[in-house]
Structures are given as structure tokens and as C-alpha cells.
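W.,

You were right to be curious about this one. When I first looked at the sequence I had no strong expectations either way, so I just let the prediction run and decided to look at it fresh. Below is the sequence, 167 residues in total, followed by the output.
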Amino acid sequence: MHRYLISVERRAPADPQTVFDVLADPAMHPVIDGSGTVRALTHSAPTRLHLGAEFGMDMRLGSRYHVTNRVVEFDAPRRIAWRHFNGHVWRYLLCSVDGGTLVTEQWDATGVWNRAALALLGFPRRNRRGMIATLDRLAVRFEQPTTMTADPAPDLSPSPATPDRDA
């Protein structure tokens, strides 16, 4: 695998379309972000992403900044990816598996001209940690809370008296 193509995967207990719908909703990105850098969706975003759609995010990594992303891959419900000014791509690949969807998140900086600067800033390593946390947060959105039920307590009250047949 290329040093500037990071992939992590996790099973989410939901069908691919349901997972894709969360990823295609830019308002959900700050909710599922595990890196702590995606702060808020800007007002200029569509409610649902599509190929070519642009959406802005308020970010924080040391200081606050803003990025505008463009959707560069869109194949519902199997693939969605976006890229911002630096050229690296955030990609999600979805595959149906027993019990849900295998979600692969990729950070692809193979086509970026300043990869060495990214490496000096620790991005390949930092991104892997954030991506693992993001997929954990995404999967948790679909987990059903377990409800503990116990067998009903036995009825220990005296049984109703049966009429005396001889009376």
C-alpha cells in the first residue's frame, strides 16, 4: 500500500444505503468525525451530496479555518468521495456483508504535490487514528440498544381457593 493512501475499515450494522445516506448528508460529517477537526457545516452546503456538489466545513487543527470540498466520486450506495484545495481525497467504499456493511474509509494523497509537507506534519499517521475513530462513531449510530428483559417473576400469591365439592 502507498504511504499516502491510508485505508481503514469496519463493519456497520446497517445496509449500504442507510450508511450511504449518512455519508451523503454533509450535516452529519461533524457528528461522525473522529478526528476532532470537523467543527461545523457552513450554510452553503446542499442537504444531500451529489457528483460535483460543493460543501464547506469549518475546521480546527490548531487554529480555525474553512475548507470547501467538491464531491469527485459518487456511486450510490457504493462509493462517495470529496476533495478540497490541497487535492487529497476522502473516500468511503461500502460493501454489503453479513450483518451490515463493510465501510472502508480512505485518505488518498497520492496525487498531491506537497506530500512531504503532509508527512512532516504527521498526517498519514494522524489521519489513520481519526479515521478509525470516525468509523467507530459511524457504526455506533446504527447499533441498536440492547434491551434486557427478564422472565416475569413467578406468581407466589396463593392460588384461588377451589370450591369444596363435598360442601
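Here's what jumped out at me. The radius of gyration is 24 Å. And, maybe more interesting for your project: The longest strand covers residues 63-75.

Coffee later to discuss?

I.
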